[in-house]
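[job 0412] stage=complex_fold ligand=magnesium ion status=START
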Amino acid sequence: MSLSSPQNNSPLITDSPQIASEFLMNGEVVAFPTETVFGLGALIKFEEAVKKIYKLKGRPQDNPLIIHIADLSQIEALVEEVPEEAQKLIKAFWPGALTLIFKKKSSLSNSLTCGLKTVAVRMPSHRLARELIRLCDCPVAAPSANLSGKPSATKTEHVLQDFEGKIPCILKGETVFGLESTVVDCSSKPFRILRQGSVSEEEIKKILSGGFFSSKEKQDEKDFPKSPGMKYRHYSPKAEIVLFSKDQELLSVPPFSALIGINVGLSDFEHKNLKTKFIAKDLEDYAKNLFAFFRECDQRGIATILCELPPEEGIGKALVERLKKAASD
Ligand code: TXA
Ligand code: MG
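[job 0412] stage=complex_fold status=DONE, emitting structure tokens
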């Protein structure tokens, strides 16, 4: 097999983790599916490839990457220690959509952690992602496979929209949840959620005994610096995002609008300016389709996307976090 890109510069799209792993082991950047969203990966032992991820995404240099592992033995080379309470989280949620922040091994390259003393680690449950990492026999650093600021990629075609001609290979496959992993900081006590995700706060609280977890809502940057990535504009389509809640009436529908929501009452809502809509069956369906809907709206030249804020329970918390971020300047 030749590892060079096909002549027309479009990436090789394969369903073979074996083929994708050969690109990674050759020092290339490869996109791959996980149960959350697609990742844009490089082996952590290839500094240049890791740096290339930042360049390809247009990612700020102070926004560290998540390191993906295939089995627990790979964590030892990355972190100083795994606190006992964090082991409970690992047991309950790995492999899965939970990223944990630990004190890092000092030997770990700064291009992965952006000079922080901590490192983010996740063991994905997706069969193809795990197989890919296992075949490379090296952890894979990967942010979401989207241009910085854009909605994450939940389908192979989204990766193509952002990186066609720029990466040599995409491992194709299905994502499951459609939103990124939950990020929990285990590097100091009490542990805290830095980013909501499909592993819900309720589930985490059930595992950690009192005193080990804080869900303080309004975090003050001074006593609690959030994930570096959370300060940037994120998840945003070109269209303007307008949020509304179930009880609010849709008073105005600007020209070339789209609507996404979960309230069944919206199914009958019609307006001459409304060009397309998606009414989710439940919170999981909303999460799974949100980013794909944003991207579809951009392709259709939609000017405004009206988004219903769902109830903040289960994955609803993660949805609200994403929607508010997408709507912010
Ligand atoms: O589901 C996911 O987490 C996906 C898939 C590909 O695994 N990845 C993902 O990566 O969403 P990314 O880079 O888009 O988001 C990672 C988040 C960023 O907000 C980043 O700032 C934060 O994790 N992060 C990484 N390392 C950190 C650290 N040491 N301390 C605090 N936050 C960190
Ligand atoms: Mg991202």
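Residues 34, 36-37, 39, 63-66, 99, 101, 113, 116, 118-120, 122, 142-144, 180-181, 183, 194-195, 227-230 surround threonylcarbamoyladenylate (ligand 1) (CB under 6 Å).
[job 0412] exit 0
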